[in-house]
């Protein structure tokens, strides 16, 4: 099937129908009316703005999440914005179908209405980047910019978003580190179409800096500072936010997710298929068979999931996994890979290692023999010898990797995430076994299916 035929079929599945559009438009009208009534009832000077993909008409069929921002005047003190914003969010949500309070930079209300998720987020009513005071304020400017520049290319955005979802590279959240919806919109506006973006996969990496609003000319000092900072942090792309020269839109995009996009873009252009957009059914298998096939071993450190949001928890687990990787390599074990996450109320770190046990002794290098430290080393160790000027000793060590890990934790010789340090000290450590709820995670990790580049999923 040629590429145009594939795109045509995909669009039929992802473009909202007329009935769906009518439902969304009615939903927005009703929510706007409920919001305005609540604002008047509380006597507030607040403007409601719909932002995000629903407001820009870049949403996918069946994906109707609503972002309703409650914009307070710029002279509102931050503490007052937080308090009155939450009060207003709750007042609006009382006219909906239930709600809960969620927390980001400040509290906001997450409600349900007619089966749709509705986020009610307080922010400042900003007109330019110079007025931005909180992280969410830019969303109003993002929506305005996209509406002014999309020029009817909404379906091209839908194609790119669905492609990124299909290859597991969509979402700028810390647990994904992929392409955000706003980044997808910018790339379409910049390069023209879905296929143009895919064809530019190499070019974007070489060019590195994408500056749709020419901030490097309009605000060179600020924009160059952004470029320098992001270059030093070795980000795959630097996309200077069209509405704010201080911000890289792709700051959360990881090299791994860009790598997946890079290979899948090439594969799709060579051999177009709907599977790139909707994925194959995830492969499953037996993690024990993977261990036998490879002759390696699996260490799993698991503990009850702490009450932390993913944006905090996952980086802490990843930091801990890297800490174990470094500590075990110092002890003579080779870590072939690691994974971290949570499932069914359990947080985990998985380490694939080359062996279960090491030698009973290790050779410990010491100082030069004619120094004060040399005498100290000589007295403390049983088997000591000299090679050249330096002393060496034989030291008995724990053999089993579980014992080694327990000793490393006890002696604080592993760099652990500060928010999970105490949890890990009390964690269960499993060798070549995981409970049923982690079997699929173990298989996807050991088989590398989780990061598979060769297949179409």
TrEMBL record:
Its EC number is 2.7.7.72. It comes from the Archaea. Residues 34-142 form the Polymerase nucleotidyl transferase domain. It is an enzyme of class 2 (transferase). Belongs to the tRNA nucleotidyltransferase/poly(A) polymerase family. Archaeal CCA-adding enzyme subfamily. ATP binds at residues 53, 56, 142, 161, 170. It catalyses: a tRNA with a 3' CCA end + 2 CTP + ATP = a tRNA with a 3' CCACCA end + 3 diphosphate; a tRNA precursor + 2 CTP + ATP = a tRNA with a 3' CCA end + 3 diphosphate. One of its GO terms (molecular function) is ATP binding. The keyword Secreted does not apply. The gene is cca. Residues 155-278 form the tRNA nucleotidyltransferase substrate binding domain. The lineage of its organism: Archaea, Methanobacteriati, Methanobacteriota, Thermococci, Thermococcales. Keywords: ATP-binding, Magnesium, Metal-binding, Nucleotide-binding, Nucleotidyltransferase, RNA repair, RNA-binding, Transferase, tRNA processing. This is CCA-adding enzyme. One of its GO terms (biological process) is tRNA 3'-terminal CCA addition. Homodimer. Its cofactor is Mg(2+). A single active site specifically recognizes both ATP and CTP and is responsible for their addition. CTP binds at residues 53, 56, 142, 161, 170. Coiled coil: none annotated. SUPFAM superfamilies: Nucleotidyltransferase, PAP/Archaeal CCA-adding enzyme, C-terminal domain, PAP/OAS1 substrate-binding domain. Mg(2+) binds at residues 65, 67, 119. Residues 294-429 form the CCA-adding enzyme C-terminal domain. Catalyzes the addition and repair of the essential 3'-terminal CCA sequence in tRNAs without using a nucleic acid template. Adds these three nucleotides in the order of C, C, and A to the tRNA nucleotide-73, using CTP and ATP as substrates and producing inorganic pyrophosphate. tRNA 3'-terminal CCA addition is required both for tRNA processing and repair. Also involved in tRNA surveillance by mediating tandem CCA addition to generate a CCACCA at the 3' terminus of unstable tRNAs. While stable tRNAs receive only 3'-terminal CCA, unstable tRNAs are marked with CCACCA and rapidly degraded.
